[in-house]
Request: fold
Amino acid sequence: MLEVVDEYGWHEVESREKLFEIIERLKAFESMTWGEIIKNDTTGSHFIEGYRLTDRDAKKKLESLKVSLDTFVCSLRHHKRERIWGIREGSALKLLWWDPEHLIYECDR
Reply:
């Protein structure tokens, strides 16, 4: 399910170094429970229903992947505005998108 197409595809990660940073961040999340990830304000991570995404193309991508817009998608904060998007399945997260500018769900944070 890892997207490698425009827009928000993982091919957009700007450098090998950035990719390794992202991998290290994901490893750090692996040592946490979902409660720790989501309820900890320092992670800046959260779940949001697909229909609340502010980017129309992201909504269309969910639909093309046969994911209901009522499904909660997960936004993991990597650094500043950078976000990693996925769908939780049990204890795992199926990675979807790389969103370096926080455009999939814009908010006032």
